[in-house]
UniProtKB/TrEMBL annotation, chain A:
It is a peripheral membrane protein. This is ABC transporter. GO terms for cellular component: plasma membrane. Keywords: ATP-binding, Cell membrane, Membrane, Nucleotide-binding, Repeat, Sugar transport, Translocase, Transport. Belongs to the ABC transporter superfamily. It comes from Notoacmeibacter marinus. Residues 2-234, 253-502 form the ABC transporter domain. GO terms for molecular function: ATP binding; ATP hydrolysis activity. It is found in: Cell membrane. Gene3D superfamilies: P-loop containing nucleotide triphosphate hydrolases (3.40.50.300). PROSITE patterns: ABC_TRANSPORTER_1, ABC_TRANSPORTER_2. PANTHER family: CARBOHYDRATE TRANSPORT ATP-BINDING PROTEIN MG119-RELATED, GUANOSINE IMPORT ATP-BINDING PROTEIN NUPO.
Length: 513, 389
């Protein structure tokens, strides 16, 4: 159906795709595997007409084609569901679908009718009259998929589709994909979740540094052999050490009925969140994206203040009315989800970004008497952090935006750990980070707990939480479940809570930490 | 339709050259302009840009005109870099002049070594207070500072007009709308009486601009301003309150505009009149941009724009063209600087007719972060769009 030969794309000196070959047959689910930055997105953008290849041939049903725009790709029969949805939150699902067909001469009614047919045929229930802003991420994804399927594509490209879904929602998606496959449609499935790929995909193409490493059959590989192909070396698994006895540990972070009204119509209000993070422990917060995790982070970090000082206590001190600097002074450190633009200023060098979160806590060491910045000291510490965390960079002090996601995240985590904080709160610690960097970051977080510090790790990646957390709590619609000790936690239990099972009316209630 | 696409790697070389390219383009446009009105471009450009630099007295005039431009421009660099669009420096200049003139007008007998320093302090206070209004409105209520700071210019100008025609009019001034002349103790001393009018305000302007450059480049305060302008969310993560940064930027830029105002009346004019500035507060916006929002760059840019005022006067005398020609040149400089900066950061793309049928709908992608920041700046604090849009 689709065959690609020698597809190459250069950005300046960087060869993002180097002579990539790939063949997809009708009715095949084909996985595209690779670390962050391996060239998966570049490849897909060329298939979908968003980028122009520098060399190589794309053959569609045997004919060489050149695809200049997404519209041409759709006309050929290529559909795409993006990782970041392109939906208007203030419009209804039906209006969003109709928008994509505006100018095609079909009326709203006809489109609505067709949308209903498609959603019923493929088991993708959607409510055309629901406001997108009020829908869960899984529901939004269904709208995107329905919109894509209405164009009757022969090849559907899915970019990291399960990264925003609960395990149960992911199951439903897999059923839909199997049905599409049964109709003879092909799927190009981009993911770094190896278990999924092994289960679902017929064949896989592995990219590394823009080159095809191998074409393989995932079901014949193990997760670790696939990971090794992606990374190019055996990934050292992070091994959990038995959590220390925590019965008598003091509470480093305590949330007491933390509530926060929504800051905007599409934000999630926090509702009476209680949580204790004791010294020497990693507490994980699971949840589907957009259930209040970002709001929780900003409330704990002090970027958003609380009405009642007692709602957040750090090391025994009521901190609800303190700003982020005040909370840092109590020994807390923070790593936000967005690296560029939140955790770091993109157009500033690493030394400046080191200063960003450390100017208050290390005021004596980084600033002179006039408030003048001591660049030399910043350079020394930045170099130390880079060495400790194995931050790979092209220049001694590059801009934050010049680092790959994984290397920047290593630097940002290292920036906080270098202070030896009492508490570290981290949101999506390894989101979009390559396997090697992720293992390093997880190891560093576990090390904080081993030294007697406390870690609050908010993550959508359940594998990650099962790997590092001593207990997992789940956020849903701004509420937090009780933490489930890792010994009692199963993916099913956590998944149910992520999907909104009422924690107060299940047997989980009795599980105490 | 024309679309602007963000360039992934804007050229650093062109970013540095941008003000020079803009000046060259302004000269070219000037040639066309003079041709169009039937004047010899060579003679006109000589009269405009070279002649004022050939005589001692006009170099003094250059320093006199550059003084307020550098002071205000350096302050505006700080404001603009931190994302605070203070457009009302002209009003802050006027209020600084009024506040500083309190001493010589209301206490003409207070004449000693402290007279001038007190006037300068009051001038800064007056400008800072006037600037604190849009600053507070923005920090507390998210009001667009562009509108409020601009509107207060006219309030300040009318207030000055009323003062000099009413309560502050010199009783012995033959009914002219002006205050008493300032005493020698209330006058900014000249650098060299023998050769021209230039006064020590020029020295103050240079020192202030260099001090601001140091603060911006090398201190924690400067860092907080830069990071707030570049990446507001990261600044908040760093513990720099956006409201406090806004207040600081407005108070500082307002104080410097006020200082420029009192220096202008005590050094160059010697009394308050209905009009004390030919738009220095607005021209300083051009100074800030031409100087790359770098206070040290504002020194050079201030001199260039001062030359445009002088050249305008010279062209009026030598060529018999309107002195509005200075405004035209100033406008062209700003236009070309901003044009160059835009083309350095963005690529122009002509979009064909709208793609029919199944056009991609990407609400989040149509506004780049840079544009968004500008829009935010223009519209006041717009709440951040949902990240999962």
């Amino acid at each position: 159906m689709l065959s690609v030969e020698g597809l190459t794309k250069r950005f300046g000196t960087l060869v993002a795709n180097d002579a990539v070959d790939l063949v997809i047959t009708p009715g095949e689910i084909h996985a595209l595997l690779g670390e962050n930055g391996a060239g998966k997105s570049t490849f897909v953008k060329m298939l979908f007409g968003s980028l122009r290849p520098d060399a190589g041939i794309i053959r569609w049903e045997g004919q060489p084609v050149s695809i200049h725009t997404p519209a041409e790709a759709r006309a050929l029969g290529i559909g795409m569901v993006f990782q970041h949805f392109s939906l208007f939150e203030a419009l209804t699902a039906g209006e969003n679908i109709a928008l994509a067909f505006e100018g095609g001469g079909t009326g709203h009614g006809a489109i609505g009718q067709k949308a209903r047919e498609v959603s019923e045929t493929y088991g993708l229930p959607i409510d055309p009259d629901a406001l997108v802003g009020e829908l869960s991420v899984g529901e939004r994804q269904r709208i995107e998929i329905v919109r894509c399927l209405m164009q009757d594509p022969k090849l559907i490209i899915l970019d990291e589709p399960t990264s925003v879904l609960t395990p149960q929602e992911a199951e439903k998606l897999f059923e839909t994909l199997e049905r599409l496959k049964g109709e003879g449609r092909s799927v190009l499935y981009i993911s770094h979740r190896l278990d999924e790929v092994r289960r679902l995909c017929d064949r896989a193409t592995v990219l590394r540094h823009g080159k095809v490493v191998t074409h393989c059959t995932p079901s014949e590989e193990t997760a670790s052999s696939l990971a090794a192909m992606m990374v190019g070396e055996e990934v050292e698994g992070f091994s959990r050490t038995a959590s220390s006895n925590h019965a008598s540990a003091r509470a480093v972070l305590r949330l007491n009925g933390l509530s926060l009204p929504a800051a905007s119509p599409f934000a999630v209000p926090l509702k009476n969140v209680d949580l204790t993070v004791p010294a020497g422990m990693v507490i994980g917060i699971a949840g589907v994206a957009g259930n209040g995790q970002g709001e929780l982070f900003e409330a704990v970090s002090g970027e958003v203040l609380q009405n009642d000082a007692g709602m957040v206590a750090i090391d025994g001190t009521d901190a609800g009315q303190m700003d982020i600097e005040g909370r840092r002074a109590l020994g807390a450190a923070f790593v936000p989800e967005e690296r560029l633009g939140h955790g770091a200023a993109p157009a500033m060098p690493l030394t400046d970004n080191l200063f960003l979160s450390r100017h208050g806590t290390d005021s004596g060491s980084f600033t002179g008497t006039l408030g003048n910045i001591l660049k030399g000291k910043l350079k020394t510490v930045a170099a130390h952090i880079s060495a400790t965390m194995d931050v790979r960079k092209g220049a001694p002090d590059p801009h934050a935006s010049a680092l790959s996601g994984g290397n920047l995240q290593k630097f940002l985590v290292g920036r906080e750990l270098d202070r030896e904080p009492l508490l570290i709160v981290v949101n999506q610690p390894t989101w979009g980070v390559d396997a090697g960097a992720a293992a390093r970051i997880r190891g560093a977080l576990a090390e904080v707990a081993r030294r007697g510090g406390a870690v609050l790790a908010i993550s959508q990646d359940l594998d990650e939480l099962f790997e590092i957390a001593d207990a997992i709590a789940v956020m849903h619609h701004g509420r937090m479940s009780k933490p489930i000790p890792i010994e009692d936690a199963t993916r099913e239990k956590i998944g149910l809570l992520m999907g909104g099972a009422d924690p107060d009316h299940t047997e989980l209630d009795e599980v105490q930490i | 339709m024309i679309a602007l696409d963000k360039r992934p790697n804007p050229s650093a070389l062109y970013a540095t050259l941008s003000p020079f390219i803009a000046l060259a383009l302004t000269l070219i446009a000037g040639v066309i302009l003079f041709l169009a009105i039937g004047k010899s471009p060579a003679a006109a450009l000589y009269a405009y840009f070279i002649e004022p630099l050939t005589e001692g007295w006009s170099l003094h005039e250059l320093a006199v005109k550059a003084t307020p431009l550098i002071l205000i421009g350096a302050g505006l660099c700080i404001a603009f870099l931190s994302g605070n669009w203070n457009i009302g420096a002209e009003g802050q200049l006027v209020m600084g002049a009024i506040a500083g003139a309190l001493v010589p007008v209301l206490m003409p007998e207070f004449r000693n070594i402290l007279t001038l320093p007190l006037m300068l302090c009051l001038g800064m206070l007056g400008g800072a207070l006037w600037a604190s209004v849009p600053g507070l409105l923005k920090a507390k209520f998210g009001t667009s500072e562009i509108l409020t700071s601009l509107m207060l210019v006219y309030v300040a100008q009318l207030f000055l007009d009323w003062l000099v025609r009413g309560p502050w009019r010199d009783p012995a001034g033959y009914n002219f709308p002006q205050t008493v002349r300032f005493s020698p103790e209330a006058t900014m001393p000249a650098i060299d009486y023998a050769s021209g009018r230039a006064h020590w305000g020029f020295g103050i302007a240079i020192i202030v601009a260099l001090a601001l450059w140091y603060m911006l480049a090398r201190t924690r305060r400067g860092f907080s301003l830069r990071v707030t302008g570049q990446s507001p969310r990261a600044a908040r993560f760093g513990g720099f309150s956006p409201g406090r940064t806004t207040m600081f930027a407005f108070l500082l830029s307002g104080a410097l505009a006020g200082l420029a105002g009192i220096i202008e009346v005590s050094g160059a004019i010697g009394q308050l009149r209905p009009t004390i500035s030919p738009g220095y507060g607005f021209t300083a916006i051009i100074v800030a941009f031409l100087g790359r929002l770098n206070p040290a760059g504002a020194i050079l840019a201030g001199l260039v724009l001062a030359l445009s005022y002088l050249g305008g006067e010279a062209a009026q005398i030598t060529l018999g063209v309107s002195d509005k020609i200075a405004r035209v040149f100033q406008g062209m400089i700003l236009f070309f600087v901003l044009g160059c900066d835009t083309l350095i950061n963005y690529r122009i793309r002509l979009k064909g007719a709208s793609v029919s049928g199944t056009a991609a709908v990407t609400p989040a992608a149509t506004v780049g972060p840079e544009q968004k920041r500008d829009i935010d700046a223009a519209a006041g604090a717009v709440p951040e769009a949902g990240r999962h849009a």
